[in-house]
Amino acid sequence: MKLKLIGCVCAAALLAGCATNNHLYQWGNYEDTLFAYFHEPEVKEEMLTAYMVFLEKSQTKNTKKVAPGLFAEAGTFMLEKGDTKAAIRFYELELSVWPESEPLMNMLIRNLNAREQAVQEQAK
Q1: What is the pLDDT of residue 20?
Q2: Distance CA 16, CA 24 (A)
Q3: In the chain, what is the straight-line distance between the N-terminal and C-terminal CA atoms, in Å?
Q4: Dihedral angle over CA of 48, 53, 55, 57, nearest 10
Q5: Nearest to 33 by CA among 83, 70, 88, 72
Q6: Domains in the chain, start-ordered, CATH in brackets?
Q7: CB-neighbour burial class of residue 13 (10 A; exposed 0-12, middle 13-18, buried 19+)
Q8: What is the rounded distance in angstroms from the CA atom of residue 56 to the CA atom of residue 4?
Q9: Using one digit for the tens of pLDDT, what is the confidence trace for 60-106?
Q10: For helices 84-97 and 70-81, what crossing angle results, to 10°?
Q11: What is 66-80 written as a DSSP string?
Q12: Distance, CA of 116 to CA of 124 (rounded, Å)
């Protein structure tokens, strides 16, 4: 009898612990955007716009931090669209919010700046 009671109490505590999921970070509509980006090209631009609005709003609110990698992902989206300056800006945001990303973000920023400089020199 005691064993059953202990088992029920443990199961209830375990389920209660699973029910309280306070996320550490803001994710916005990241999952939906990523899915649409690769699988639904007809709504890709609309989802990207909503994702960018989320990222812009997340910087002004005094709420949870944006999840690691979301600014970098936005930078990659912008780079794929051909907007190198916006990509660099998002990579710099990722670096400022997540200093752990410094080696990768610095390399990406440095490479993009070098590419921009090469393009400008060729234009002369």
Answers
A1: 47
A2: 18
A3: 87
A4: -170
A5: 70
A6: 21-123 (1.25.40)
A7: exposed
A8: 52
A9: 766 788 889 999 999 999 999 999 999 999 999 999 999 999 999 99
A10: 170
A11: BPTTHHHHHHHHHHH
A12: 13
What the block records as the tokens of 25 is: 């970070």
Retrieve residue 73's tokens.
């992902």
Q: What is the pTM of this model?
A: 0.74
Candidates 81, 104, 83, 82; CA nearest to 92 is: 104
* Residue 13 amino acid letter: A
* Coil, strand or helix at 26: strand
Over the stretch 10-69, which tens digit does the pLDDT of each residue have? 555 555 555 445 578 888 888 888 888 888 888 888 888 888 888 888 877 667 888 899
Please name the amino acid found at residue 80.
E
